[in-house]
Amino acid sequence: MSLPNITLISFGYFEKELLENTAEAVRNEFHCSVIIREGHIDLSDFFDQTRRQYNANNLLKLVDSLHFPDSIKTLGLFNVDLFIPILTFIFGQAFLGGRCGIASLYRVSNERYGMPEDNQLLLNRFKKEVIHELGHTFGLIHCHNPTCVMRSSTYVEDIDQKNQQLCPNCRAEIDF
Amino acid sequence: MARKISILIVDDEESVRDSLFNWFLEDGFRVECAENAKKALTILESDQFDIILADIKMPGMDGLEMLRRIKSLKSDAIVIVMTAFATVDTAVKALKDGAYDYVTKPFDPDDLTHLIRNATKQISLTDENETLKKKVVSLENVEDLIGESEAMKDMLREVESVAQTNSSIIITGESGTGKELVARAIHANSPRKFFPFVSVHCGALTESLLESELFGHEKGAFTGAMYNRKGRFEMADSGSIFLDEIATISTKMQVELLRVLESKTFMRVGGNKEISSDFRVICATNKDLKNMVENGTFREDLFYRLNVVNIHIPPLRDRKDDIPLLVDYFIKKYCTSMNKPPAAIDSSALKRLQEFNFPGNIRELENMIERAIVVGDGKKIGLKDLPLEKTFVSSSAESLDDFEKAFVLQILNKYSWNISRTAKALKVDRVTLYHKIKKYDLKPSDQ
Most A CBs within 10 Å: which of B22, B23, B111, as the mutation test of the A interface? Predict the structure, then answer.
């Protein structure tokens, strides 16, 4: 029996190596095959002039409208600044127990906070973010275990504190 | 295990509601949304929420008005107000009206997380406080049960042995003998001690109020029943219920009570759901229930259901040996509570107390000591500090004549047999007083 697929679909420019490494991490964590796809949309449709950010709710709806019959979950990858109306920014979001989610590279890079570039750190943060949002699509809520990837992170420093793996309790929650 | 915290989001903007809904869902909260204040208030009528996150600017009723209405119904509700137009005035107004906090849209994810975390912490502290309070009440110590007389020792032995059982108990005794204290002692020594001790003063409530108090009511059961309310039987689940002055309940309530005691199930007033509760019933009365059964004013079947064990508390006049111990206990109790140095009692005052019959029993003695500590010099309680004279005469008087004789003699002694002053105090003329002295053969030596 073949493994179920997860689709990672990138919108905008992403380093090939970063995408492959992220896919590898997802494969290891969820024991699924991962398909990397490229999406082409006009992001200006999602740009909010007042906030000067991109509307994450609309982008999530867009990803939800894409159907990949070969995949059980789809995660849209962006490199723009995401917001939802009530919050100043978000790293990503997903439908809890749903089919899709989104994550952005924009707020996880060191340069954004006046720190020197660190590609390894960027990759690690992004992998955690992608696994975190996919975890939500598998029905996982935020975890209180400080090292679990499902722990809520509101700052990049919070992301650095946790591992890129699910804790045993969260793992047990997912019915593969 | 901690319960799931619930959040109600009230905002007219769908995108805000959806965003917050998803955000809180991912945090594991139970979340519901309402698009306006009216709908939110309707939801709150049938459901309870720990946190209400409400927008201030909404069409129709605004967030501030909604906040006031929620607070008038549930003063401890945690309401967080949000607005896109931050002004100090609105913030202050919201906080003055009881808002837990105030946030300006859009807010930082970290601020939202902290805000909710703090509110959640407060909710768990409140829950914990409630639970501990209930435990403390149920574990209230029974130090107030003082006595080394044989009568008291017998009663305490009985309390100890019946406490371990589940049998219904009737505590009898005159007013002021401490029936509720004995009931608490039974509860505190029983396996139910970690669960609530619920006390109901049946004599203080009308029939319909008592019914709603004991069984609870559903929203709309009667005018003013705005919310569902648990009854005392439900609250006493796993614990004990103390029904004081049981003899005062109406015949209808006697029937209801009998049914509940037999089945341990009941329905709330206006409800149709059967509720079961595991409670132990302890009743108290200063009336002769057996006599009431014979007169037909108390149901015989209920009497036998309640009277599995009967504990009689002797009146204070039958255990005068305990008076010094009780006096000592009350002096310590009131000196401590009033922040006064420990006082002592004059031997003649103690002797007079032991001679006194205390129709009001321990309650009367306690009040006397409390008064003496308030009005006394703080060192020694003397005769002058005790209101024994004002309580007239020894209650050994068995007829009106005995009473009059003792009273007239008391006043004569008070005024050193000065006839004019005594007559004035008694508001009679001197001739009448002489007539009474002759009638009762009173002499100055009769002290």
Answer: B22
Q: Is A93 on the interface with B (CB under 8 A)?
A: yes
> Which residue, B5, B10, B12, is CA-closest to B69?
B10
pTM recorded for the entire structure: 0.52
Contacts of B165 (CB under 8 A, 6+ apart): B309
Which residues in chain A are contacts of B110 at CB distance < 8 A? 154-155
Of B16, B109, B112, the CB nearest to A85: B16
Instruction: Show the low-confidence residues of chain B (pLDDT under 50).
Output: 1, 138-140, 391-392
Separation of alpha carbons B17 and B22, rounded Å: 9
Q: pLDDT grade, residue A65 (50/70/90)?
A: very high
Q: Is B5 on the interface with A (CB under 8 A)?
A: no
Above 70 in pLDDT, residue A16?
Answer: yes
Query: Which three-class secondary structure state does DSSP give residue B73?
Result: helix
Q: Cβ distance B405 to B393 under 8 Å?
A: no
Among the partner-chain residues B15, B26, B82, the one whose CB lies closest to the CB of A142 is: B26
Q: What's the pLDDT band for A176 if we cut at 50, 70, 90?
A: low
Can you tell me the distance from the alpha carbon of B91 to that of B95, in angstroms, rounded to the nearest whole number? 6
Chain B: residue nearest A156 by CA? B110
Give the E-state strand segments of B1-86 in sequence order.
6-10, 30-34, 51-55, 78-83
What contacts B398, CB < 8 A, 6 or more positions away? none
Residue B11 CA, chain-centre distance (Å), reads: 42
Which two tokens mark B209?
């109020």
Model confidence pLDDT, tens digit, residues A138-172: 999 999 899 999 999 988 888 999 999 999 999 99
